[in-house]
Amino acid sequence: MPLVDVPARTVERPRIALPPPPREIKPEPRPEPPVADTKPTDEGKPVTTLQVMPTDRDAESETRIRGLLQAATADLNRVDYRKFERDVQVQYDTVKSFMRQAEDALKSKNLVFAQTMAEKAATLAGQLSGR
């Protein structure tokens, strides 16, 4: 049987409306914040520094803080870091971090923060040396 010639059909594809290309969005300019007048009203007065503790107690407090840091160091020197489990090693590292923060606070004369960090370091180091 011979092949029958079939006329070619043209099928129109439906046209899909494409969305318009996105427009470039320009940010709205923000107004500049008002600049505060930073000039002191009394130019003749000297600038005072806020003291957290009275200056006559500074030396006493610093001595006490250094004593706490020395006690923490002594406690840490009594333990073997390598023998601890991972969670205890993290506590050891935390004690070292507290000690660094206390030293930095001493350098900047922030005695209240230095004492807080030194007390935390000494307490945790004491607990670690008891293990």
How would you describe this protein?
The chain is mostly helical and 131 residues long. It has a domain of 51 residues. It contains three helices and no strands. The model has no long low-confidence stretch (mean pLDDT 81).
Compressed to H and E, one letter per element, the order equals HHH
Q: What's the Cα radius of gyration? A: 36 Å
* Total helical elements: 3
Which secondary-structure class do the elements indicate?
Answer: mainly alpha
Say how many strands there are: 0
Shape field: elongated
**Beta-strand percentage range:** under 5%
Give the distance, in angstroms, between the N- and C-terminal Cα atoms.
99 Å
How much helicity do the residues have?
Answer: 40-55%
Query: pLDDT average, as an integer?
Result: 81
Oligomeric organization of the protein chains? single chain
Poorly predicted sequence stretches spanning 5 or more consecutive residues: none
Characterize the biggest β-sheet. none
Short description:
The protein has 131 residues and is mostly helical. It has a domain of 51 residues. It has three helices and no strands.
